[in-house]
Structure formats: structure tokens, C-alpha cells
Amino acid sequence: MAVQSAIVVGAGVAGLTAALSLAEIGMRITIIEQSAQMSEVGAGLQISANGARVLDRLGVLPLISSQWLQPDCVTLASGATLADLASVPLGRFGVARWGGPYGVLHRATLQQALLKKVEDNPSISLMLGTRIDKPSKEALEAEAGMKADLFVGADGVWSKMRTLVEGAGQAKFSGFVAWRFVIPEQDAPAFILRNRVTAFTGPDAHMVCYPLKDVGAINLVAISSGEDPGHAWSISPTDEQRREFVSRALAGWNHTLCETLLAAPKPTWWPLFGVSDGHWTDNSDLVLIGDAAHAMLPFAAQGAVMAIEDAYDLAAMVRTMPIGAAVLRYEAVRRARVAKVRARGDFNRFAYHARGPIRLARDAVFALSPPTRLAAKLDWIYGYKAGEQPA
């Protein structure tokens, strides 16, 4: 293999997974991260079988298996009546069908497990507190103290590495905002079941709830339309802003559910940004992965898993072909895959936020759809085998 070294910019889920994946094929890696210490913002993550299989191959899954929860199902329910509308079985059924588990956990738990594997790997060096405002390949090599055969931009939605890719996309506000709540498990109402992921739906809004076994809490994320706050990430809202959100976006929802959100401690308000369509490589030796390439909305719960797939597919292509061909093949394969998953997310948003006659038609279709049929429609997502795509 001619490609022997890489510089990865960014030490989030995408960057750490990329470093481990590339080290697995015999490369020497330096990760450059601007934060002085590894502290992950955010709350819960859903990791489906297509991501869990990669984590297992990298030795990460055993580190989180005792901390995450494997839900029995993902269920769609009415935010107004709390009645179940449709359900996809997971648990043992999912493992048998898709070849890997489906788990939910706090983002920090996954990042710490990835970090431990990185720190234990002698082929990987991690440089924290290293900020490069105007990146160039020469500047990255000088900072890392090494020549690199491959450069990987894993620096998120506000990526600076995108400036090195002609025709790259740009961060753009999606028109949606996410309100995130993490409440102690004992404070959550009993109808938020502890053995499943529940997506409560309503006109123009939905809320996803699931337990975080690793922190003894319930993760709740409510998503609706909202205003563009500019270049922002996580915002601590006022009580007045919280009340306005609940009364506007969740009007007509179950009273106890709304009161739970009004009483929850320290919510955060996250504007949801995507990345416009554009190139992901410089056609030579630099690639973008994860949110830097294709930040996507959470309607398919695949954002983190797409980054994990990116990393493992990239390593497989670098292992089997010349670097120039590998980056071109990476972009072609991953662009098609991400576009299809994004389209599924758009469909979910339409279904979750439906109102009026469309909502009634949706409920009727769900009522006639057995769980196994709904599961079969997800085979192409959860059954994907990263690292095994044809050359």
C-alpha cells in the first residue's frame, strides 16, 4: 500500500472513527483538534446496526455495550393522544435481521470510547488545542510534524477544511430548530416508556424520546420550524422562550408531556444547519467526511452513523486503490448513499409533521402496515455493510 500516513482535522465521532479505520489498514495518523480538551456537547445518539457493525470491527462496541440501551422498538405515537401509530421491532429481531444491534446512548459516552481506542493505538497521535484558522496542506503538515499522503476534513458543519475543496458546499440554516432536554429518569412521566425509542408527532413538529442508560436520564428532542439565529450552535433559552416554543409548536399536545418540558432543567436550543450540495474531495488527496461534507437533519436518525460509514468506507477504498482513485470512488459511493438516506429523512419529516387529511391518510396507512413490513423498508439503511462496497 503506497498510502502510509494521514492527517485528520477534527476529533469528533467522524474524525476519531476515521483515525481508527485508517490505522486499522496500517496507516500512521495525526489528529488535529482545536479544542484544548475533549468534551462533547449534545445529548443522545441513536446508533443503528450499520454503524454498530463498524464500531464492533474497530473494537469500540465492547466499550459501550454495558452502557447503552438496546431498545425493543422504535414507535411512532400521537403527541396529542399518546396512542401508538406504528412500530419497527429492534432488539433481537433487529440483530438477526441486520447483523448488528441498535443502541441509544449519550454522545459523550461514544466519543470517550472512541477516544480510548485512539489513545491506546500507537499509530495515532492526537494534538489538542491546535487551531488552524487558514488551513493549507503545508500548514497542516508543519503543525503535525509529518508528511501526509491523505488529508481528512472531519471538522463539522462549520468546516474550515472545505476551503481547500473547490466547489465545496456551504453551511446553511435548514429552517428547523431542535429543543433538547435531558431529564432525570425518575422525573419522566410513565408513558415515556423506558424500553423503546418513541417519536411523538403533531402538526409541524415532532419529539423523539428515549432513555440514556449511561447517565440515568431520558433524552427528549423536539423539532419544529424556527428562525435563523446566525452563526450559532447551542443556545440556552430563557423561560419565556421555552413557554413560547411549547405553546406554539406543541399546541394541542398532551398536557402532561408539555408540562414535563416546561419543568425540565436547563434545556438547550439548537438551530439545525445542513451543508449545501458540493464537492467532497479535491480529486487528489483531500476528502471531507461527516458533517463537513454533508451535515444532515436528524429526521432519519442517521447523522452520526453516516459519519461512521464514511470513515470505514474511505479506509477500505484507500486500502485497495491508488489515493487519487480512492478519493474519487469515496465521493461517488458516499454521495449516492447519503443522498438516499437524506431523501428518507425528508419523507420522515413529511410524515411526522403531517396535518389535516394527510395526517389521517398517514395514520390509516400505518394501521395497515405490520411491524415486519415496516422493518423490511429499512433493510437498505440498517443492512448496509461499510467497507464492503465494490470497487
From TrEMBL:
<dbReference type="InterPro" id="IPR002938">
    <property type="entry name" value="FAD-bd"/>
</dbReference>
<dbReference type="Pfam" id="PF01494">
    <property type="entry name" value="FAD_binding_3"/>
</dbReference>
<dbReference type="GO" id="GO:0018658">
    <property type="term" value="F:salicylate 1-monooxygenase activity"/>
</dbReference>
<keyword id="KW-0274">FAD</keyword>
<keyword id="KW-0503">Monooxygenase</keyword>
<dbReference type="InterPro" id="IPR036188">
    <property type="entry name" value="FAD/NAD-bd_sf"/>
</dbReference>
<keyword id="KW-0560">Oxidoreductase</keyword>
<keyword id="KW-0285">Flavoprotein</keyword>
<protein>
    <submittedName>
        <fullName>Salicylate hydroxylase</fullName>
        <ecNumber>1.14.13.1</ecNumber>
    </submittedName>
</protein>
<feature type="domain" description="FAD-binding">
    <location>
        <begin position="6"/>
        <end position="340"/>
    </location>
</feature>
<dbReference type="InterPro" id="IPR050493">
    <property type="entry name" value="FAD-dep_Monooxygenase_BioMet"/>
</dbReference>
